[in-house]
Amino acid sequence: MNNTQKSLIAILICYFSWGLFPIYFKLLKEIGAYEVLAMRIICSFVFMIIVVAIAKNKKSIFNEITTLWKNKKSVLLLVLASFLITLNWLTYIIAVNTNHVLEASFGYYLNPIVTIILAVVFLKEKLTRTQTIACLCVGGSLIYLFVSLGSLPWISILLALSFGLYSLCKKKIVLSPKASLLIETAIVSPIALIYMGYLSSNNSITFYSFGTDTLVYLLLSGVITAVPLMLFAKGATAIPLYILGILQYLPPTMQFFIGIFVYGEVLSIQKLISFSIIWVAVAVFCYSAVISMKKQNLINESHKK
Fold it and tell me: pTM for the complete prediction?
């Protein structure tokens, strides 16, 4: 098995893991969302300490962290990124445990296109014609939902915006995934610990009240969070960007079907129409990625000649 095949397997395991997240977090539905979030942060931090401690390249990881702290702008961006990904995690936990899996999947369909819009606004990147069409589809979908339902899908918007802004912050910081996740969880862990301390002082901690299975699921949240991210980092470098761009729609598609067929969420005609518009945007986005990659390959071949 060559490196590309190994990378593809790593990416597929990562995306399948993310696609199954609704099932995992439904196992914790009896626990309050903020308590689940706090424990997820703490367990992720502890897990990353263990990962870094046994890593062969731990010296280079510590060198990365030392270098980062010398750059105030990078530190501020990483602090902001930490709070944005925390907001994303909280929104997702609330979405799953309040039976809004479809709305969560909608948010992750939106995310890549929202990321493009943020790049145009903040990084002054230019849109291609196909990307412009995809963005217009997203706008049309949201306007249709607002007009037909009288409200916007705030869970979807929060998920897409928080992760899009998180990605934008991370784009400005050069860090390995292990170093990045260690620092991000270290930044928000004190807040999580204070919150758990507050719950403890009021005898309001509930996670140990629902049996051993629930406790194990909660303690595994660190592994569930960190491993897919590290698999993604391992696989993303050796896979063509257009394949990565297309495969990123696997998790929200899985979540969409889980929401309907596993948890029986209702797909109203308004939501179906809105999803259909987004699927057009996804098709356009994927087409754009394939065309861009073909053009890049032609350029590379011409340079070789």
Answer: 0.90
**Tokens matching residue 93:** 């936990």
The CA angle 81-83-88, to the nearest 5 degrees, is 95
- Number of C-beta neighbours around residue 71 at 10 A: 13
pLDDT tens sequence across 145-177: 878 877 788 999 999 999 989 988 888 887 888
Q: Which two tokens stand for residue 108?
A: 């992750």
